Amino acid sequence: MNDHLTTALHLAAASIPVLPLRAGKLPFGNCAACKNSACGDRPNMKTPGPCTCPRPCHGWAAATTDPDTLNSPPWATAWRAAATAAYHPGGAGLTVLDLDDQDAITWARATLPATRTVTTTRGEHWIYQGAMPSANGVRPGVDVKSLMAYARWLGPGVGATAPLPAAVRSLALKEPSPSRRAPQSLRVPLTGRGGDCPHRTPAYLARGIAMAVQRITGANSAVHATVYRTFLAVLSTHGRCGCLTDTDVERLFTAAQNRGESPRHCADAWTNARTALGM
To answer: 3-state SS string over the chain?
Structure first.
């Protein structure tokens, strides 16, 4: 039994739903159709999506507390190849405030009640008792992970777990809830309306995409927020004229993924930008 599976079994015994993550903090697909995020990492729930598995195949929806499931194929195989363990905070009645940099941590310390904290690669997880809708980029360097989301398990942390405060619940109101989001894949609608490009020269678009890629690549903090704002800027300029191509969007998504964003987060940011623009 490897260390990740041992951790998973301990968490499951504490009624915390767990799942394995592969490199890049991405879930394993437990069927061939979902291998290597081919389905966009959208769990098969009540709403239609690319994953047509007969049961929740992977991601937060497949997180489990059942030791037999954790020890049986395909899970047993996944744990042997896993890079780390993750858990579904909402399924355990928890909310994780993911603070991505020192500025976000400073804001939290000045604004929110103290609670259990876990050190991450770039910042801290603040863990509160209580579940809520998840949302990305609710403020610079801050994500909310609870319902319909997963978080890496980085240890039990320190401090007492405080009740979920209203100040954290209000953060999720700044983005559309996950239930309104489109299927989370790389293939998302590009434009709101077709038509001739008013920019007259492809060089205008090329410069715009190059600048957007540079902005994402150069983000030293608040990556989630930077990706969303960059997508918003690109769509506000080029989203209605019909000049954006799949290649342009792939360049933007690739730049975001190179900064640590998952395909699901990219699709979320793109869909939220379209929603904000009424597209």
So the answer is: CCHHHHHHHHHHHCCCCEEEEECCCEECCCCHHHHHHCCCCCCCCCCCCCCCCCCCCCCHHHCECCHHHHCCCCHHHHHHHCCEEEECCHHHCEEEEEECCHHHHHHHHHHCCCCEEEECCCCEEEEEECCCECEEEEECCEEEEEEECCEECCCCCECCCEECCHHHHHHHHHCCCHHHCCCCCCCCCCCCCCCCCCCCCHHHHHHHHHHHHHHHHCCCCCHHHHHHHHHHHHHHHHCCCCCCCHHHHHHHHHHHHHCCCCHHHHHHHHHHHHHHCCC
